[in-house]
Amino acid sequence: MSGKPRLTYLNGRGRMEPIRWLLAAAGVEFEEKFLETREQYEKLIKDGVLIFEQVPLVEIDGMKMVQTRAILSYIAGKYNLYGKDLKERALIDMYVEGIADLMQMILMFPFSPPEAKEKNLESIKERATNRYFPVFEKILKQHGQDFLVGNKFSWADVQLLEAILETEEKVPAVLSGFPQLQAFKTKMSNMPTIKKFLQPGSPRKPPPDDRYVEKVMKIFKW
């Protein structure tokens, strides 16, 4: 195995996408192994690799890491994207957790039954525009800095940009009332490592389609 982190998941966004985002933002190249069958997943469990019987799995620095939050925290700390002290880390954690609540709604949207899709889409729009994005608009406006915490690029900035872009895929005009977030999106998207990740051919995955949903349900027996 090379020195690159190795990511094991399906060939789609899911819970691995924030990990891909964070590694890419840190300028770290990684390898991916895609699960295609239920048997591959069961073998990982049988071999004791997935201690909680769940993916994502990230092999990094001699560890086989599971649990998305633990993986993200490790990567953020390793690549200096986790603040300069405990107070900054606490703010980053707080912001990341808030963003994750919105991302969970987006993550589960493709698995909504057809009759619930319109209602769930409206919920994403309502939560983004009335609960989550106003918080970050206010933070950026009050401190007048480019980044959310300590005027330094952090995990929170990466996660917020991912959330903005994925929400815009569902609700294109969602930032219309948020000028600070519009400026933030432009600045973050033009950072060299992120700009590279946003280009065609990068490891960034497309929005989940029906085939991806079917594969998830088949492998994990949802």
TrEMBL record:
The cross-references to InterPro entries, in alphabetical order and at most eight, read: Glutathione-S-Trfase_C-like (IPR010987), Glutathione-S-Trfase_C_sf (IPR036282), Glutathione_S-Trfase (IPR040079), Glutathione_S-Trfase_N (IPR004045), GST_alpha (IPR003080), GST_C (IPR004046), GST_superfamily (IPR050213), Thioredoxin-like_sf (IPR036249)
Q: Which residues form the GST C-terminal domain?
A: 85-209
In terms of Pfam families, this protein maps to: GST_C_3 (PF14497), GST_N (PF02798)
Transferase in keyword set: yes
Report the EC code(s) recorded for this entry.
2.5.1.18
The family assignment reads: Belongs to the GST superfamily. Alpha family.
Please give the name of this protein.
glutathione transferase
Upper classification of the source organism reads:
Eukaryota, Metazoa, Chordata, Craniata, Vertebrata
